[in-house]
Please model this.
Amino acid sequence: MAVLAGGRSSEHEISVQSGASVVAALDPDRYDVVAVTIDQAGGWELEAARPLTLEPGRAGNSLVPRGPSELAANGGGPIDVVLPILHGPFGEDGTVQGLLEMLDMPYVGSGVLGSALTMDKDVVKRVLRDVGIAVARHEVFRNRRYDLDQAEALGYPCFVKPARLGSSVGISKVHDRSELEPALELAFRHDGKVLVEEMIAGREVECGVLGNADPVVSVAGEIVLERGSEWYDFSAKYDEGGMSLIAPADLDPAAADRLREAARRAFEVCECAGMARIDFFVTADNGVVLNEINTIPGFTSTSVYARLFEASGIGYQELLDRLIALALERHAEDASYRH
Model:
């Protein structure tokens, strides 16, 4: 199997860490693992910076060889399944998934539609609203054009976000009009489409989802910010001691049930597969508001997704085994239909 890590997005280093953790955890008695790094210029490499071609049917280092292959010579190929551990654009947004579909290669995680839909914070909100799942109100601006009066109609504080990026990159919490325009300019450095979103006052609670047609939802876990962070920004997510996770979260039982049902429903409606981490706010009156769907969450053994399933009785290695089996199952199911 091939583990893809790195990628062209600003989340490159986070992906590299996740990929290394996955490679180290995979059972060498069950899997011949080929670690592939995608650099920030888009080049694909094996270990020791050896270039890798994706050209089907060629010999050499092809990921999909039809003849003699360096991967096969090293005991790693031909590849049976791909595990993309790529965060953000050019990896989590349907682009790599489309490439793997064209190559007819089984891969872990959501397909083209589910990946692209959930990556776009604007479009996915519209889909979720249509099926009655609560999400924050928002305004959208494109191509560096914005109306400050329209933006501040959502009230303060609010959040300004690139529409198609993760890990809180380019996001600002805005307290008044003087902060609004700089926040919009920052977000537009990362994406041509930007959201201004109302702030939801509530506890940040997350669920993991695992499965295809009949997904399993983990226990809910609450994110607790440390060191006085005002919101769950990049530093709180990735710096040592920036946050702690309480799993299971201490929630009203009815709210916990609604949250897990909303996670399952959102996973299905958004055509997700394999895995997702779904983030919510739980308000003071036990309302449940969906914040974000991550189809390739952080994947070290200490990442939130893995810890949620550990708290649900599924350890890290078993989680990886299940994801690989789900990828092969979905590929076989898709192959059973005539296209």
